[in-house]
Specification:
Elements: H1 2-8, H2 14-23, H3 26-34, H4 50-66
Length: 68
């Protein structure tokens, strides 16, 4: 779903951006992208979202917040 949301914001679609920016704040996207990065493999956290989720939120952050 997050990848779909990021595709909806492509080409600076103002309607989609205005709806989604209320639900997915810059801080939320950044926290999901940044959270769970561990240098030691033994240090596993329940909030480690994994690369797939981080990739989706990175695309959303770019289309929703950065490329405006």
């Amino acid at each position: 779903m997050i990848l779909l949301y990021s595709d909806l914001c492509l080409d600076r679609n103002e309607e989609s951006i205005s709806i989604l920016e209320k639900e997915y704040s810059f801080e939320l996207c950044f926290e999901i992208i940044n959270n769970g990065i561990k240098e030691d493999e033994d240090d596993i956290d329940k909030n480690d979202y994994g690369l797939t989720v981080r990739h989706a939120f990175t695309r959303l952050m770019i289309t929703l917040w950065i490329d405006r």
